[in-house]
Specification:
Keywords: ATP-binding, Chaperone, Hydrolase, Nucleotide-binding, Protease. Belongs to the ClpX chaperone family. HslU subfamily. GO terms for molecular function: ATP binding; ATP hydrolysis activity; peptidase activity. Pfam families: AAA, AAA_2. This is ATP-dependent HslUV protease ATP-binding subunit HslU. The chain is α/β, with parallel strands linked by helices. The chain has 3 domains: 194 residues, P-loop containing nucleotide triphosphate hydrolases (Rossmann fold); 132 residues, no CATH class; 96 residues, Helicase, Ruva Protein, domain 3. 52% of the residues lie in helices and 12% in strands. The chain is built from 18 helices and 11 strands. The strands form 4 sheets. It has a 5-stranded parallel sheet, with helices on both faces. It has a two-stranded antiparallel sheet with strand order 3-4. It has a two-stranded antiparallel ribbon with strand order 6-7.
Amino acid sequence: MAIEGLTPKQIVEKLDQYIIGQEKAKRAVAVALRNRLRRIHLSEDIRDEVAPKNILMIGPTGSGKTEIARRLAKLVNAPFIKVEATKYTEVGYVGRDVESMIRDLMAVGFNNVKAEMEEQMKESSLPKVEEKILDLLLPGTEKKQKQSKNSESMQMPENAFILPEQVSSEKTESSQDSTREKFRQMLREGKLEDREVEVTIRRQPRGPSMEIIAGGSLDDLQSGMQDLQNILTGRNLKKKMVTVREARKILQAETLDSMIDPDKVADIAKQRVEQSGIVFIDEIDKIATKNQNSSGQVSREGVQRDILPIVEGSKVNTKWGVVDTTHILFIAAGAFSMSAPSDLIPELQGRFPLRVELESLTKNEFKRILLEPKNALTKQYTALLETEGLKIEFSDDAIDRMSFLAEDVNSRSENIGARRLHTIMEKVLEDASFSADEHSGETLTIDAKFVDEKLRGVVTDVDLSRYIL
């Protein structure tokens, strides 16, 4: 979906289709996104001076932090990755180095651009795929076809003497051409889809073989060396018997791969990553150092200092070239239940000038989450069980009851936000999901009484003072 022309208000409206509440957070990301578009239209002398306003989201788990960033990336069709700050360690410790987040982002960008180009070339690849399938169905005809074309290109003298062997050969080739055309017609009519053919497939590398140049880990190095050895020895090729239907998918992928210029893909992807890439750093509060005596403080602060230059703007080596991170948008998020944003090192705090606090969800938000979004839970479960022929209907009092339970349990125990609704819905529909195939054609109405009955085993009293969902 093109973001060109969407105002911040329209961006918020798009996010409203999937995310309930959190208006401040949605407005902040909408403005940040619009500013990226505005920057593109600036003159070159000022464009490079306008840096993205990175955002720090603060709020409990399940309040929508990750969903906002994920939907934002889909909205703009931009390269996007979500990483967890706890997965990274400073150089010298076991774990991933922080630069790998940019290499991963570049990989996403490359794959996105490649997929777009493949879609554009899909139609033009069909004739080539068809010829390859016919070569598999009629082994040996490819070579003779080429010989036939070569002979046709040679001009024969009018009085040339034609040997009997040549006449026989021409008849044989004519017969093979006729057979090939018959098979072509059958192939187009779908009569050969289940016939088996032998294809040679190339094993996919287990890891980024060239990542060793870009500063990958020891595992990347070992995997890359193994892939290189397989290529040199030919062990990356494998023959396999598959149906024509499956062979078409394999051959189309190979054909499209050969038609696309990887250097062109890399150039476009690099530009997209540098100008519109989004990195979502989750659990950034887990690397905050609350006090000088906290265990692992050196490692946590080290990770922060390693992340700092990436967010500030630096050049990272990838197997597709050097990527400049200056204009990549970084969105960090954390619950900060055991620490505060001020516990991050001052330099890193300064690189996230926009701070948005997400509020805990209430009964009203839970009710809207169950009903309004395009991917609402009630719609998901209804669609799932309808595949078995069981129709589910939710009454208004059932929606109210589940919304109340979600808010109540979150207030009494660990607040896990909207994820509580998943737990409740699973419990309520557990029996129906298990035996849905036995009730095909029936309609099951979910009301408040039904909800209480299904949750009776985990509620110890009417006041829900102890609830273990």
